[in-house]
Amino acid sequence: MKVYYSPHLKTIAQKLGRDSTRSEIILWKHLKGKKVQGFDFNRQKPVGKYIVDFYCSRLKLAIEVDGYTHRFDKAVKKDEEKGKYLERVGIRLFRFTDEDVRNDIQTVLQRIKMAITKLTAGHTPKSPLSLDDARSEDREEDKPTSTLLGAGLDPLLIEGKRGTVVAVCLSRRKGEVKKPVASAFLKAGHGIEGDAHAGDWHRQVSLLAEESVDKMRGKGIDLVPGIFAENLLTRGLNLGSLKVGMRLKVGESVVLEVTQIGKECHQGCAIRQQVGDCVMPREGVFARVVIGGEVRNGDEISVA
User: Fold this and answer.
1) pLDDT digit string, tens, across residues 262-289
2) CA 169/CA 197 separation, integer angstroms
3) d(CA 128, CA 195)
4) Considering the entire predicted model, what is its pTM?
5) Distance between CA atoms of residues 126 and 73, nearest Å
6) How many CA atoms are closer than 13 Å to the CA of 55, on its beta-carbon side?
């Protein structure tokens, strides 16, 4: 199915291209010229009644880079409507945050490549592309998306909506490094039993992606789980894409609700003094416990 668009969107798309954000420019440098597995991407491409940041017509694959404003309620609703529309017309949408692209472009590219590999399943483009190939590519655009989808595709994993709990960590006092434990019990409306941050408030549980810690390790700093006072250290789940109000399922029964993204780092922070920097204020996610239960190292964590 070929997806047409409203002509007036072309002018808007051209303006968006001229006013690209820094993150969009960074990602475009890696996508343009068929640099990713030989597939051709367009920038600020009108698709139906929307404009997507990057689009590969051959794969019917759209990529969006979301800035800070996408975390607000109105923007979240618009993004959801856009995603549902694209899904209806057979287009797969992947979202990354500004922080993802600026701070860890290699992981972003790895996820895109993994998605393309799963989507193509033997549909590898020829390079260089001849005129006959180009005509064939145009015909491919009219094929149903199902002809390009590979078996065994896990969209939650590819989109960063599913991951693993790498470590569960506790501390008796606030502002200090938390210690890894094998498991912990999360109590609804309270938090992790035995942890200093548990209580009747909105930051009952803190989460941090191990990918964020890896960036610090890349500077030659030896860091262990709990060093940034995180309760749950995760891998694979794109914490940067979460919005306030979204829910996460952890393990067999635990449900968390995101209440805050990032925080202010207080003066005299023991962690900052020890490590020299603290990623929690920039990239940490905080939540309250909606449904309690036990959480163990190695448990699955996913967007509910």
Assistant:
1) 876 655 555 556 556 667 778 899 999 9
2) 11
3) 58
4) 0.49
5) 43
6) 18
